[in-house]
Amino acid sequence: MLWLMVDFSKLPQAPYFRPARFEAEIADCEVIGQIPTEIDGAFYRLHTDWLYPPDPIDDIPLAADGYVSMFRICQGRADYRGRYVRTQRYQAQRAAGRQLYGYYRNPFTDDPSVRDPARPHLRTTANTTPLAFAGRLYATKEDGLPHELDPSTLETRGAVDFGGSWKSQTFTAHAKIDPVSGEMVAFGYEAPGLCSREVFLAIFDRAGRICREWRFEVPYTSMLHDMCITREHVIIPGGGAVTSLERLKAGKLHWAWDSSKPSYYGIIPRQGEVRDIRWFFGPQRSIVHTANARTEGRKVIMEAPMADGNTWPWFEDLAGGTYKLLPNTIRRITFDLDSSAEHGTEELLFEQPVTSFTRVDHRFVGLPYRYIYVQYFDSAHAARAGGHPELRYAANSFGRFDIRTREIASCFLGETDIVQEPCFVPRPGSHEEGDGWLIGTVHNPAEMRSELALVDAPTMQEVARIILPFRTPSQVHGIWAERGELALR
After folding, report:
1. What separation, in Å, do the N-terminal and C-terminal C-alpha atoms of the chain show?
2. Which of 18, 200, 232, 426 pairs as cysteine with 191 (C-beta 3.0–4.6 A)?
3. CA-closest candidate to residue 453, choices 416, 422, 484, 415
4. Before 107, cis peptide (omega within 30)?
5. What are the mean pLDDT values of the chain's consecutive 10-residue runs (489 residues total)?
6. Cα(96)–Cα(86) distance, integer angstroms
């Protein structure tokens, strides 16, 4: 997402990045190039877009309302649809005709008509990651429950707790689906309420029923945004970002950065009990997203983009330091389960700075794999970004990072294009890792419109560009769902 690469406070007058505030439907979008006819499915995205201006005015983009969009691709053509997610928060604001909710994840700052600190999950915007599982589509955000969506119309069906079996107020924005068993692994942190250390972790069978669950406490309350799975383990990284009820009652943002806190990693055996959880501690790292992981014997190996400090421009440094833009680089951490050491071994795989939005061929989640895909700024190309000098380092390329050969293959997408997260689309009938396409949107501030790029993954050459006649809100995450995974019309 753009706001993780650029300080938005420097762009108060940039027209492209203002709230879009409209819903849309386009039949048979304009296409430059040719969409491969064998592609049949839908590319879903979740966005942040303020329905009403934030109050306080300095609230952060993470708190903006959820907006879901879809590119339905079939027979070489593409249709587009975009809708707001009708959360309880959205409905309350529409009824009032104004902003009712205060600072990000702080219900104490809400309007009295909706203030409910005991049930903070009711104020979720469901704006982070689409999830397709067991034939259903959800909008997820880690501060509340998933909201089910109609996969064809995008209409909101409502918040779900999986028939009462989900025992947490919150649900991760990064559930993982095991490509071998078809199971889904998900967790909720601050599970019983604000600032709790308690985590609820569960495994769903391929039919969508919980078949295994854990409840445990983390070393200290911190943002647990993403995780990894292997065939044998779940890895949950945390650390750095901290909170407290005192902080929230004082009217502040949910998170602050505590440079005295080490990162921590919970390694949970998928067939084990709470007593089998192993905690590792390391130097402080910002790990917003992960790439992939695997278990090799008694070692758990994880790759992820990491930074050596606070990567959140909005979260104050409790030590009084000023924020500076820190690069993410792809690193590997190896956890030796037979060692008595309380830390893993870190290795830098690539010196090239990247965004934190790493993705893999999802058919290889939790398995030995080779490729990491991510959008990044390729300095070999100019990036004028529509004349905004503050955006000169915004991502301009898709990258394929080969963790075996340590080679980088790049697809440059344009001087004025600001590139969003790529997702992988498998080639029908092929089971080879990386055989397919990368799909991802780009901002085009020069033309004031959004576009969808389709790149052949083996050659890293662009094959098609789908054009929208308007700009869409800034994307957080997207997913690709093939026809058959969901009931697509």
Report:
1. 29
2. 200
3. 422
4. no
5. 43 72 96 98 97 95 97 98 98 98 98 98 98 98 98 98 98 98 98 98 98 98 98 97 98 96 96 98 93 98 96 93 92 97 96 97 98 94 54 84 98 92 98 98 93 98 98 95 93
6. 15
CA dist list (Å): 198 to 14, 160, 359: 41, 21, 28
SS3 299: strand
pTM of the model: 0.95
Distance of CA 461 to the CA centre of its chain: 25
Q: Are 203 and 211 in contact (CB under 8 A)?
A: yes
User: How confident is the model at residue 388, as a pLDDT?
Assistant: 53
Extract the tokens encoding 477. 């995450």
Structure tokens at 366: 């939790």
Residues 6+ apart with CB under 8 A from 197: 217, 218, 219, 220, 221
Report pLDDT for 274: 98
Signed CA dihedral, 477, 295, 201, 284: sign only: negative
Q: 397 near 412, Cβ under 8 Å?
A: yes
Closest CA to 102 of 67, 57, 56, 37: 56
Secondary structure (3-state) at 243:
coil
State yes or no: cis peptide before 56, omega within 30 of 0: yes
Q: Give the pair of three-digit tokens for residue 230.
A: 């292997």
Beta bridge partners of 72: 42, 79
Cβ atoms of residues 291 and 304 within 8 Å: yes
Q: For strand 233-238 and strand 228-229, is the pairing parallel, antiparallel, or unpaired? A: antiparallel
pLDDT for 2 equals 44
Query: What string of DSSP letters covers 388-447?
Result: -GGGTTS--EEEEEETTT--EEEEE--TT-EE---EEEEPTT--STT-EEEEEEEEETTT
Q: Are 260 and 324 in contact (CB under 8 A)?
A: no
